Hints:
The protein is mainly α. It has one domain: Winged helix-like DNA-binding domain superfamily/Winged helix DNA-binding domain (Arc Repressor Mutant, subunit A), CATH 1.10.10.10. The protein has helices spanning 2-15, 19-30, 36-43, 47-59, 80-101, 106-123, 127-133, 139-142, 147-155, 160-163; strands at residues 63-64, 77-78. It is globular, with a radius of gyration of 17 Å. The N and C termini lie far apart (36 Å). Residues 160-164 have low confidence and may be disordered.
Amino acid sequence: MALADAQIEAVQKSSGVGTAGCATLVALGHYPNLTLRDIATIAGLSHSVIVRTVEVLVSAGLVIKASGKDKREVTPQLTPEGQRIREALINARAAVLDKALVNLSPQKQDVLHGLVSEMLENLTIDRDQSDHLCRLCDEAACGPDCPVEMKVQRMNGIDRGMNH
Length: 164
């Protein structure tokens, strides 16, 4: 819990927004054209909370509202400042992890990586929940070897070798 708390504190401090805002910025950077419902699912929050969160992000100049496929649908988009803040919060989260790992030998880091990967796989139950698990992740850091994504693909019967 201390590691999770330190990461949340770091991303909030670096971005100047709450956890819902941080999750929204990260998601929009990785998955452009998300609807408010998509963001709510990823963040694990209600639609109304995300509507208010997006309003705060718009007021701060971090996102703009765009119309989705359906004109009633809103698909927030990152502004250049929103992208900069997103990168800052991802870097702040990574700095917390780096600090936690700094005194572990490479061998211990490898063991920890394997254990955490197994734990994340065990926690992954479906696509929506997997997106929630990774709501503050730098998905580019994992790349195609993300244990959560690999578990979802296995559950859906997708052969990674055929998709890449």
